[in-house]
Amino acid sequence: MSRHLLILLTALLLSACDMLGLGPDPRIAQKEADAKAIGGACRHGLRSIEDCYTLNKGVNKASIYAGWLEMDAYMRENKLEGLRPEITPPAAATAASAPRAEEVIEETKPKSKPAAH
Fold first, then answer.
1. What is the per-residue DSSP string for the chain?
2. Could you identify which of 73, 83, 88, 117 might form a hypothetical disulfide with 92, taking C-beta atoms 3.0 to 4.6 angstroms apart as the criterion?
3. 38 near 55, Cβ under 8 Å?
4. Domain boundaries, the chain
């Protein structure tokens, strides 16, 4: 009888671990949910998974991929079309305004002097 009581008491004590704050950190779950939302938004925005990783450095890639796949399945199932993003990513915007390599080479070349006759 005491053995059953001890097992029941131990199980009861262990079940209260979440109430003491010993459970998983809610910030981790929130970061994973955010990463899944980013992946889903990338898929809906017709971005490749590689572009999504590049635009969101420091975010858990596995969660981004899970969100991307989930949105892909949802879009295929419901025959939805994605939406092209209207805002260019910061890297593309700076690349578009940066001078091309040919322009830089032309600016750095010394001007040739006409030959005297």
1. -HHHHHHHHHHHHHHTGGGGT-S--HHHHHHHHHHHHHHHHHHHTT--HHHHHHHTTTS-HHHHHHHHHHHHHHHHHTTPPP---SSPPHHHHHHHHSPPHHHHHHHHSPPPPPPP-
2. 88
3. no
4. 30-79
The span from the first CA to the last CA of the chain, in angstroms, equals: 119
112 pLDDT above the threshold of 70: no
CA-based torsion, 100, 104, 109, 111: positive or negative: positive
Residue with tokens 């979440």: 18
Q: Is 4 exposed, middle or buried (0-12, 13-18, 19+ CB in 10 A)?
A: exposed
Closest by alpha carbon to 47, among 58, 39, 36, 59? 39
pTM over 0.85: no
What is the pLDDT, as a whole number, of residue 58?
92
